[in-house]
Amino acid sequence: MANTTGSPIRVRKDAWRLAADDPTLLWYARAVDAMRQRPLSNTTSWEYQAAVHGTNADPSSFNADQQKAWGQCQHATWLFLPWHRMFLGIFEQIVAATVAKLGGPQDWALPYWDYSDATNPNARKLPAAFTAAEFGVPEKNPLRVERDQGNDGAAFLDSKAVSLNSLKHKIFTGRSTPGGDSGFGGPSRGFNHSGDNDQGQLEMVPHDVIHSDIGGLMGDPDTAALDPIFWLHHANIDRLWEVWRHQGNSNPTDPSWLTGVKFFFHNAAGQPVTYSPQDVVDTIASPWHYQYDRTGETPAAAADKTTLATGG
């Protein structure tokens, strides 16, 4: 499948719905292992990409490039969703290039973890590839890392954690004043790396709760992207933004959101690139040309009336 530019469209699929012989997670594990072997100075290395989200390193030790690229994740702002979409797009591009170089499929796409799928009895477990003792690489599993919950293969998320009550909020932009409705996507606030107040409804639940419940590396924004499940979790958050939009809701049209901020990254070739939200509002037309296998109302999208409406 290709878009109007002729570029192939990658299709992101639910990890729990992949066929038994689907190579997506197998090649993901192999690519993760290969990226971990690259030096930190390589912008396509596992540690470098994780540091783009956050890092515990002393900022005074950063070189000029790292000063611009590291510790840039956006929280408690209406930039939360577009920034993470950019971050995922770059990461998917890097992993896909790594998979291809290793001899894997040319159309590899980042899967997502739909933990809110009420039709799937396994949804509230980590996908099995992330808990196996060995997967993808002999005698180890690159997808299994330090976690407080989930590595035993049991369900550990409750209904509150996977609530989709955020989809009921029809307005993307919330108020930036304390106590105001933070909206679906967050308050109209500029660059904001700290996420300790006034998150948008989707950022609060399920985003924040999933991070906290898994714990370990995922429990700290400065280490979260070192956990391979981080990327599937955020792919699902990105997908839920598309679900919300497909329900007839609209993204901001304010120029200060569309073009007011440019974010710095390195692409799969190591070249510096910058993007604004207007560059990523359409997933197919975006620099990464992707779509989700499901963007209609998910089985749980109506949000069970008995579910606690955290932040709802």
From TrEMBL:
UniProt xrefs under Gene3D superfamilies: Di-copper center containing domain from catechol oxidase
Lipid metabolism listed as a keyword: no
Alphabetical list of Pfam families matching this protein: Tyrosinase
GO molecular function per UniProt: metal ion binding; oxidoreductase activity
InterPro entries found in the cross-reference section: Di-copper_centre_dom_sf (IPR008922), Tyrosinase/Hemocyanin (IPR050316), Tyrosinase_Cu-bd (IPR002227)
Transmembrane domains' residue ranges: none
Annotated signal sequence range: none
Organism: Chromobacterium sphagni
Region (Disordered): 175-198
Lineage: Bacteria, Pseudomonadati, Pseudomonadota, Betaproteobacteria, Neisseriales
Keywords for the protein's UniProt record, in alphabetical order: Copper, Metal-binding
Domain Tyrosinase copper-binding: 75-92, 227-238
The protein, known as: Tyrosinase copper-binding domain-containing protein
